[in-house]
Amino acid sequence: MDRKLREFLCLSPAGYALTCSVAALLGWVVGEPFFQEGGDAARVVPANAFLCPAVLGLIAAALVFIDSVSRKSAVESIILGVSGFGVVFAATFFIMIPAQVVFSWFSSAAHAASGFDRGIGFISILAGRSISWCLFSAGVVTLLIVNKEAGTFMAVITGTLVSGAISGLLFDPIQLVLLGHGIELPWVSRVICFLVFGGLIGLFFGIAKGLSRDGQLLITSGELAGSVLVLDSAPCLIGPSRKCDLTVRSRGMKDFAAVVQKTGFGFRFYVLDEGSAFSVNNRKIRISALRAGDRVRIGEVDMIFSNGS
């Protein structure tokens, strides 16, 4: 996979959002042919029961795959993705039961009040669908079984529930706009909401992972060759002083010669001692955003930067 494409898909929130939207679209394409509009409820429910689990399962598979492909082989990532799909599909299938009960209760209240398309009835439908989507989206919580990380947990508690609530709120207004123009195509509302749903989950997940992701500096020369310096949210001081996180001795170098600091979703290298020899990819720098594979040279010590988990 091309380096820039890999960085976009695996490191940027936009990449996560795009991947999850595509996964949601694929789930919709698989399930929509079996979806039945209206008719006898006893016939409709079994036919429709697998659409949401399929969409959520594929979103989960996409999340697990892109989260692991930067650290594991493609085969291992695919296996993890398939396991994520299975776990989330099964969990969502059972969560759909209380979600359907909640929506049915709000729907009954809406029709008893003023009907679907006006007043308190419409508000009731909006609330019911939003809450039911919020409930079944909680199936992604089971991703923790496959991938137990702080970033995943943050994404679950923020992204999935909020994404489900927002997507559920959009369905009926879109449907009303279409009906107002004489277009009776309920599948349009579904595909739009599923695309938004997948995109928001991926966006929240990407933001959470970016904020919690660490970095690594592999030392390739000098006395510490082979050692790995783990970078986190705390500034990493580099220089001759024993107070530094990485001690590098060089003639004339100040006690605190450089610092590596997390900024947003990545890391930046700042030179504090302009009189010393510092370079990134053989270019002298004062400030440089670090990317995976960058070669950092401080005095006589060479290091390679990589993104952590």
TrEMBL record:
The chain crosses the membrane at residues 47-66, 78-99, 119-146, 153-171, 187-208. InterPro entries: SMAD_FHA_dom_sf (IPR008984). Keywords: Membrane, Transmembrane, Transmembrane helix. This is FHA domain-containing protein. It comes from Desulfomonile tiedjei.
